Amino acid sequence: MKLTFSTEDEAFRKEVADWLQANLSGEFAALRFRGGPGDEHSFAAERRQWEHKLAEGGWTCVGWPREHGGRGASIAQQVIFFEEYARAGAPGRVGHIGEGLAGPTIAAFGTEQQRQRYLPGIINGTELWCQGYSEPGAGSDLANVKTRAHLDPATGQWTIKGQKVWTSLAHEAHWCFVLARCEAGSVAHKGLGFFLVPMQQPGVTVQPIEQMTGTSEFNEVFFDDAKATDLIGLSGDGWKIAMALLGFERGVSTLGQQMAFQNELDEIVRIARANGAAQDPALRQRLAEAHTGLRLMRYNALRMLSAKAGDDPAALVYKLHWASWHRHLGALAMDVLGPEAELLEAAPYQLTRLQSLFLFTRADTLYGGSNQIQRNLIAERGLGMPKQSKGR
């Protein structure tokens, strides 16, 4: 497991940190620490402009190969970029779904024509993406998708009909990659396709899901005979491609995620010292446990990145670990703030950063694969135990 960085890597770190320091100023100064999970509705227009600023500086898609328009940064340099981005308090990325999920998937499985069509817009920050996976009745059980795609042989176009839910950024996205059933009579993992669907067209309706806080980070998306521009791979390859995409999701950006977690923990410790909560032995012990858990998370992530693809069972426990740790951190934040933090006068609610953290982390153990699903994966794939009985 690599725990240190070369002289060249540290020079790269300084380049990243200096650029962020110079550019997170003026019109972008207000974006520091904004737009992350639970705060994605904030500064939407300004964060789109920030995406363009990153592109101008060459700081989008740093890990993509040069032949696809990226910087070709090494794994170590990608880790450094995400760490310094979070350390600087740079805003949540509106282009992260394109950069981290759609782009690498198109590069790996798409045709050369598809790469030339879709990758430049992601690199330039001009085309945003959303993810069309979850459906009512098909969340953690993704293979249960009911959205259907029908091919018109005369035009070569696919028609998409169905519903997706919990779709982040759907109200801003230009494109959606959609997992849909394209073979009549198919079930489970078979007969699925991976489609690229333009969002600005007749037949696509985006409906915000308003939460109790009055914000709408997520959306429902209805496809009523919407047209799909492209199919990635072959008809029936959808499950294979969808699973490969989830592998991209748990890559080097996890180290940046942990730096964002560190920022949150630092704020909780600061408040605990200021309001006296740090003098409470029980809270002090929980703060120490949070610190230790975060360090273990980092070492586990570094071990994953140092391992060869597919040969480290540590990857199976990562989502379960960070989601559970982060949920506990949200509860710790509220206990450090004290009982008055549970009271808000009336809507519209002006939540503090830590109140938002508490509310959003309630979902960490659900989205992206619930804790129960993660434990099944660890048991079945990591430990070789019998598959869970589906019942009758």
Structure description:
By secondary structure, the chain is an alpha+beta fold. The protein has three domains: 7-94, Butyryl-Coa Dehydrogenase, subunit A, domain 1, CATH 1.10.540; 129-236, Butyryl-CoA Dehydrogenase, subunit A, domain 2, CATH 2.40.110; 250-382, Up-down Bundle (Butyryl-CoA Dehydrogenase, subunit A, domain 3), CATH 1.20.140.10. It is built from eleven helices and eight strands. It has helices at residues 7-23, 44-56, 75-87, 96-109, 112-124, 238-249, 253-275, 281-306, 314-337, 353-361, 371-382; strands at residues 129-132, 148-152, 157-164, 175-181, 192-198, 204-209, 218-228, 230-232. The strands form two sheets. A four-stranded mixed beta sheet has the order 1-4-5-8. Strands 2-3-7-6 form a four-stranded antiparallel beta sheet, with no helix packed on it. α7 (253-275) runs antiparallel to α8 (281-306), α7 packs parallel to α9 and α9 packs antiparallel against α11 (371-382). The longest helix is centred in the C-terminal third of the chain and has 26 residues, at 281-306. It is globular. The mean pLDDT is 90.
